[in-house]
Amino acid sequence: MYLGLTIGIMPSTDGEQGRDLPDWAETMYYAYGSPDLSTRGDVYVGPLIGRKSGLRKDDLVEMVIDARSVKSGEANIIRGMLISTGRSSIDILDENDQFRSFSRDVIVEIRLVAHMRPQYIDDDELLFFEREDMRRRTSVSEQAERKADGHDDSHVWG
User: Fold this and answer.
1) Neighbouring C-alpha atoms within 13 Å toward the C-beta of 144
2) Can you give the pTM of this predicted structure?
3) Could you give the CA distance from residue 25 to residue 78 in angstroms, rounded to a whole number?
4) For residue 10, what pLDDT is reported?
5) Domain count of the chain?
6) Which of 43, 49, 115, 132 has CA atoms 20 to 30 A from the CA of 7?
7) At 112, phi and psi to the nearest 5?
C-alpha cells in the first residue's frame, strides 16, 4: 500500500540531511507517525557514555538472506520493520505487511535504514511496557503454579 507521497530531503539515521528513505520504507514511516529521525540517530564517536548504536525494536531494516535458504525465484533481500530479536531468530513485518521470522543462521547482513524509536534507555514507552509485561508474566506464572499444585485456594479468606 504505497501512499504515493514523496519526501523531499529526509534526515538520515545519523541525523544528516540528504538521504531519502527508500520507497518501501516511506509507507511504514508515515504509518508510524512520521517521527523526527534526526533525534534518533546512532552516535559512534565521543565520550563512551554518550555513544549509542545497535538495532532497536521497530527499526526499518533490510536483511540479506543466504541465497541457499531462499526458494527458487525469490529475492534474498527482505525489507521491513524489526519486530523482535531472540537468541536464534529475528522477526520482521515485511514491506508487504507479512509477519516473517528468520533464523539468525541464514542472515548474512542487516542494513539499518532508520531508527523509529529512541535509544533503549531513553525510550520511556518501551521501559514502561517491559515493567508491565514482567508484572503480568509474574502473575500468570504464580497462577499456573497454584493450579499445577492443586492449591488454588485464593478464594479462601484468612
Assistant:
1) 6
2) 0.66
3) 12
4) 39
5) 1
6) 43
7) -80, 125
